[in-house]
Specification:
Distance between the termini: 96 Å
Structural class: mainly alpha
Shape: elongated
Oligomer: single chain
Radius of gyration: 38 Å
Number of helices: 44
Largest sheet: 5 strands, mixed
Helix content: 55-70%
Number of strands: 10
Amino acid sequence: MALPSGRRSSTFIRLLRHGFTDPSASEHLLESPELAHVRDDPVLLEALGATADPDLALRALVRLLEAQPGDTPRRELLDTLIAAKPLRDRLLGVLGASEALGDHLARHPGDWQVLVTYEPSDLHPGLREFESGLAGADDPVALRVAYRRCLLSVAARDVCGTTDLAQTAAELADLATATLRAALAIARAAAPEDAALCRLTVIAMGKCGGHELNYVSDVDVIFVGEAVEGADEGKAVRAATRLAAHLMRICSETTVEGSIWAVDANLRPEGRNGPLVRTLSSHLAYYRRWAKTWEFQALLKARPVAGDMELGAAYMAALEPMVWQVAERENFVADVQKMRRRVVENIPAGEIDRELKLGPGGLRDVEFAVQLLQLVHGRSDTSLRSGTTLDALGALAAGGYVGRADAARLDEAYRFLRTMEHRIQLFRLRRTHLVPEDEADLRRLGRSLGLRADPVKDLMREWRRHAGVVRRLHEKLFYRPLLDAVAQLGPGEARLSTAAARERFVALGYNDPAAALRHLEALASGVSRKAAIQRTLLPVLLGWFADSADPDAGLLNFRKVSDALGKTPWYLRLLRDEGVAAENLARVLSAGRLAPDLLLRAPEAVSLLADNANLAPRPRAHLEQEILAAVGRAQHAGQGVTAARGVRRRELFRTAAADIVGSYGTETRPVEGDQGALVDRVGGALSDLNAATLAGTLRAVVREKWGDTLPTRFAVIGMGRFGGHELGYGSDADVLFVHEPREGVDEQEAGRAANNVVSEMRRLLQLPSADPPLLVDADLRPEGKSGPLVRTLKSYEAYYRRWSLVWESQALLRAEPVAGDAELGRRFVELVDPLRYPAEGLGEDAVREIRRLKARMEAERLPRGADPALHTKLGRGGLSDVEWTVQLMQLQHGWAEPGLRTTRTREALAAACAAGLISGEDAETLDEAWVLATRVRNAVMLVRGRAGDTFPSDSRDLAAVGRYLGYGPGHVGDMLDDYRRTTRRARGVMEELFYGATDR
């Protein structure tokens, strides 16, 4: 009967109340003849409403009824459905969760009968039951049908809650094992002559091997083959290969009944490039010589499942000892963590926020962390040698290798995420790990997990919560038990033994695990609030230290800073509450000696690390203003210069910290992409800092003896790298001193005053103190060390007019006023401009002289025993080669090209390229070499705490230089090769442009 317009039927309203989203269509389906005698039965509607997707369940049920071969089987299905709650829950639960299994039942309408039985063996079937279910499937199509029939019962138990996540995953793995055995039997029956020649075993890997398979997942395998007695090995291996390939096709190929799943053999030695089947001896030879760390990690889950089980057992017995020795490899932890990072980096940007498995806080984070701990501690504790993630996590907690609370939270999160993954895959039986975007899909997913109030909102909240737990805990999992090893635990709580803690420290790259444990005990033991905060911080800090080349130094330095600041109320609060402070501090403390030494002289500078914005270099004007103000408050020159040096120390730390954080990168700040910009920033910051320090020192010295006015105007001219804004951490301040007597002042008196100022400035800046000295070098002055330290402007003019040599013109290319009387500095620049940018350029004699000087320097100044290919300053393609090439172009063309009139090497090189004096390719080659050599020098100073022009000989220092330059553990050789290659190209350009060679 038609309803009046605007009114809804009672059925429509009941459907809405039971969770149907398309009640009109569903009401129409209920009117179908197949449901005639049950459509008003409330039991049916309530059962449909309890499913993940009532609309889908009803549609699939009608299709199943329509597919029945007659009225009698249709009536039998309906009567059983209404009368038997187990069948009702199972069948409708599957139909509401899986469109694919609904399609299977529509094609095979009698298969609903497998859901009727309710015997104990049916509640928790094992391998034997699944083999029985597949028995009789003697061709690929029949195998697919039988597989889906068995899968139907697995899914029914899952969606009804009869089995939990772990039991469902184990059943899926057992079903896969039975399927591999059936497929191998079909392959052997198809090629009996091949089967007679060989023994073939199938080793399950990955989730199948670990007894924790998904609904739809590639089944990872490795094949091992041997000849039967008396058979030729080569022929036997070829026969085994044909059988293995046929097995893979049986499972993977699509037929009228679809496919089962892909069989993936890419975890075998050499991956897809290696032979599909190897003998046991061939496997052993590969793993002994060539296998990488990840390949042994993969073997954690290896398990013989099909074929010759005796051969499979021999394979396991031979390889198992190798698996448990892999943690002894150099860079073991770094290799595993690097592989995890590579997995994340390969996720498309548009999918990373929907990735259940591979994204941050996903399933792989839990699995990697658990496997890492198994490999470290499973050597000595066989209870940890399980291929199943949740079993292994439980064993790690029971043994004290993981905190019980952390393990429980990870277990809960892992179960939730895996169940989400199962429900997503179950819908269409497709291999995916992406959370859907469609509202209807999310609603069905949420309801399948028991979230009925607001399925979509609740699902997203729970997913984010569990992913957050994983993200926070998966790295701490490795480090937190180290603290428990030295902490006071409650009764009954397991702890990491001292031996196990040392074992873990060694795996992390610590050289002195006993000292590391002492540091942890000093920092984290006790019941004070300070110790409690340290116990929160240290698990994360230990991981960051382990990511450096010298974890021991990082932890030791952290203890020193904490000892110095531990009683201040803000220090630990800063590290705990400010997001970037703790990681920035960890990077700085473990990157070498220079930055920690600067910090330990004034630990309060740690506050600079609270915000990356704090690490930006301060402008020279601001630095000078602060230093001059401090000098103005000082009671005498010594106190003023001490204040200036204190500011310099703090700013040196700021610059070094910014350099380290930019070079290493952090979770919130990626590695600086433009290495040239990083070099320029460091060079500019250090040059500005030294200029401001000299200005303050000059003010302090003048003020003490002469008050506000010195009898002579006085200026400091920066030279070399100082004038070029290219200072490194270990550079001296090259300068010239110039003065000009004030009107009415005797020239001798002015000279004495100027000399007194110079000597007092140099003395005060080099006095032993907690602050690093500033070495002032005036050797580039006229007549060098034999000439007066300071001259009048007129004296400079007379000298340069009469005696100046070409090397002095070259040195003056870097001259720039840095402190003192600005007007006098400007006039000095006007005086030297004609020398450094001579009209019409250099004559041929001058060019020959410069080339002669360069050749002599290369022959005589390179230290004895130094490798010319690795000396950053004087070696082939190093700083000297690039700078002399650029400076020759400045001397020759600066008079005509304004862009070349700069004290900065990279700026002049860019100007020369713009002017067409050098090709873009050659300019890029020189620039790359100059930047790299500069960064190596900076790295050496940061790592060793003292200047050096060559790569360190100590292996740990060399590795630290590599980390600064972006080379991971084990890639020091790549770093040296890249340096040689870069500088070799630069040397070729230099020889052509500087020496005029033409054979490049």
